[in-house]
Amino acid sequence: MTSTSRTTPEVLRCTNTADFLAALPRLVGFTAPHSLFVVLFSGRRSSASIRLDLPDSEDAQEISTYLDAVVEVLRRNFPPETLESPALVISSEMSFAEARNIPWRTLARGLRRRLTREGMPPREVCGIAPDGWVSYLDPSAPRTGRPLNEIAASQVASDKPQPTLASIGQYGSPLPEMCASVEQELLQAPPTTSHKERAQVAKEFAAAVHSHAAAEIPSARIMAGFIRVSQFPDCWDVILTHFLDQEAERASELPESRMQQRKCAELIATIAAHAPEDLKPNVFALCAVVWSYVGLHSVAQRQLDLAAQLDPECFGVRIATPFVESPYFLPNEAT
Length: 335
Hints:
Layout: H1 17-28, E1 35-42, E2 45-53, H2 60-77, E3 87-91, H3 96-99, H4 105-117, E4 124-129, E5 132-135, H5 149-152, H6 176-188, H7 195-212, H8 220-229, H9 233-249, H10 256-273, H11 280-294, H12 297-310, H13 315-325
Parallel strand pairs: 3-4
Antiparallel strand pairs: 1-2, 1-3, 4-5
């Protein structure tokens, strides 16, 4: 039987650097200043991406250390065949006007030379700033940058702005009445004693959270159930397996599947915010693991930090830490 329910992934066709810069926020799902984006390719199609903070300055020693770190991260996390011809984007907080020239020229030159020497010659090295953009490979690039409206006019530019990296994973203040209802549900919940019983409950509530990810905040009963099963290490396997199975089934539906995974992670953070104080740490830690699978390491780190601040000795922090320290990178879909 052939399923017809899956959608064909959107392919963003880029014919020039402005197109690529217009497509980047859609590829990675967010915008982030003071960042280096490395987009990897399989043939002409992008296959994965990674974001790194920019160095604090272009001091020679700092640049040298930074280049070492970039090479190490790429080699540690990606197979050699995907590193043959990456595209690099420097997202600068500094404007062309502030720099009185092209921002981050020294870094761009260093990246191009070092990656070429390492057998990873970049197909593009470009930059975007608040007042313009540039291809560092263009010898006639204007010192004041090219106009941003060239990016906005691209056929692959999105009508909807992407969220900033800093805003992802944030949640509003918990609703006092919902907190009270969740606590009441937890008090009334029957104990789960056996692994089999806990696994069944974990599967039920993982599915419930997943189904609510694109809708309203779930009920107090669903929240309480998820909070409860998150307190058992053996339930984490069940919960994560459910989410990863969903990811595998929807792998051909990028970027739709990525947005669903992100909504799941955001919803778990909301559930953690409504949990009683003594139960929050393990839920935040579980949320960190889910964010690591979404591919947003810095967001996962923020959730893990929340858990560790509340209870650094909880089992969730111990389990989540290696996931966050070895981030998972999702594929992209573009040409």
